[in-house]
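Two entries, shown back to back:
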Amino acid sequence: MENPTEINHSGAISRIPIKVENDELTRKEPVWVFGYGSLCWNPGFEYQQCVTGYVKGFSRRFWQGNTTHRGTESKPGRVATLIEDNEGITWGKAFLIAAENHAALPYLSTRECQLGGYRTYTVNFHPRPAPIATSSSFQQDNKDALLYIALPENRHWLGAAPLPDIARQILECQGSSGSNVEYLLKLADFMREEIPEALDEHLFSLERLVRKFASDMKICLRTLMGETERGEPKREAKPPPPSFQFASRVPDKKLRCVNM
């Protein structure tokens, strides 16, 4: 197992003494995990609490390949990762894992790292401000959270491409967890339903293109979403949000790699 590393805003890498044992951080307290992809709508593990919020200094991009959940070795799908962006923020959901829960982090290590090609870091998570002041101070407190990011050196990396090419690839791919389209559209739905005021130009542009290409090619999105097989009623398509960026200037950021 590689030694843990810290990546700071200047790009320097230094060693951090974090103990790792049996794919589980040795800990006596609960730990937060921040999700910005499928974890937002399909965490797959038990948790004590979930909170919508964001991380600063990053933008979400569909630049990571996937050959298990949303694609195959011969036809990899595209899933989200984060890239460093001084003016960016990424919205998602953080989950609180109890100290006595020793199954969640190994599960995530398998799902995200071993199968997905991601690495584990810690990052500062900002809970969404409560609309009405309450006696609880939690909503106003930032938290350290584990975060999974795919870097260009991993074997599944696909990198940047013209948005129409990415959209066509997403439309064509499917894996053991379902279609690549389902991943994209459920993430877009999460953003609209949970954080309607926050925009993600990359995500919503891909959604618009996938819907357009599916319509042009007479591809049934309900089938790709698995709705026909489950006999679910047809849902009204939600209009994509306006096309402009949602960003915040944030000059500093720090990640600590724990390499689970």
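entry 2 starts here
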Amino acid sequence: HSRPTNCIFFVRVLKENTYPAPVDPEDIMRCVQWMDEKTLNMLTPNLLAPHPNTYTFTKRLAEKLVTDQFPHLPIAIARPSIVTPAWKEPLPGWVDSLNGPIGLLVGGGKGVIRSMHCKGEYHSEVIPVDFAINGLMQIAWKIGVCKDKLKEIPVYNMTASAVKRVPWQEILDKGRKIVYENPFEMTIWYPDGNHTEF
């Protein structure tokens, strides 16, 4: 079936401005208060389109809720790219979850994940967690000291690609090297894994 072409999911460049939400978040919140789980599960695929999952859908609804409070509150929207382990703070490599690419690397290191569907030369749009947190603090400071009344809600796309562009193949190669030097306990299979385009 055809999907609308004006949705954020299909935008090639995510500009630093807000986009209209496909539905009113207040309506969604009212629906989940009275609908049973079976009905919600049936409606979810139609509500999500064109978003691939509830994560991206709810982020978009959250942006709408924040935007509705502007200019009554001193607010901004920050959109960090994929957050990865720390560069330096609190210590190099610090991580407290297995979300995103870290889960894939751990899965490969334990021998569970053998292949990832990806083009190795594609740029990994990631940001270390300490860069992201420091950026959020700078944004909060900037909004807090701003004396001029802003005409639009400030939106920041946060990524480290201007600092260092890293292709996925390099991430996989470095991850493999680290796990060979520092193997996990209780691996399922020889740690390896690579990407495939098929």
